[in-house]
Amino acid sequence: MKRFPWILTVLTAAALMALLCLGVWQVQRLKWKEGLIDAAEAAAARPPAPLADVMADVAAGGDVEFRKAIIVCPGLATAPYVELQTIHDGEAGVRLISACRPPEGDEILLVDRGFVAEAVSARPRVLASTLPTVFVGELRRTPAPPAMAPAPANGRFYARDNAAMAQGLGVTGAVSPLTVFATTQIDPDWAALRPSAPPAAFSNNHLGYALTWFGLAIVLMGFYAALLRRRLRPQAASHRVRDDRESPQAVSRRARDDRDSPQAVSRRARDDRERTDS
What we know:
Distance between the termini: 58 Å
Strand content: 15-25%
Strand order of the largest sheet: 1-2-6-8-5-4-3-7
Number of strands: 8
């Protein structure tokens, strides 16, 4: 008699629990990501407000991500810049990054002035100026640069790094962890510069991940059920064979076979001869 596969059952139960937990976790991540996307869309839909008002809202517990602000930067139109290698709408080029110290702020903001296509070799002029430049910018938190990003060379960067860019621009003081993406033209005399904020990079594949984990759990249960049925089937078949041997039909079949056997026929013939002789 085969034993019940307890070890297989325990391992299957543990794997099933892990798969179900992963599926539930992805459902929770789906709800979180949908809330994040809704918050970003709501922030982006709000009208631009003065930078001081936006930062006051943030200090009161509001979220600065994707907020649009009206910013005044002295001399920004002709300020020094560094270049960030990038691709915009499938076109290779660079984004020009300059430093801005708003009159109402204590931190230096790095302003992404816009995109310049690789085919454009000219660059905007750089002049010392204190003329105020007023523009609308979208605020974003700057992610940490990837560890494998190439080192900057000749004023060109290959990943956003606010501290390194500020150092490259020769500015001193506290640098904000935010990046401001200009959405209006900073230098109207230089049309090659295209101000824009990159789209929100939200990937929401959590529903697909959840279905994958739940699907694997179903497959595991089916596999376990098939193995268990196959393991216990020979034992059931053995019981059926033994029951058949003990059934009245089997007994009658054996009796009939005994009557028709050569020994039984010979014994009946001998008995007939003895009765005839007597």
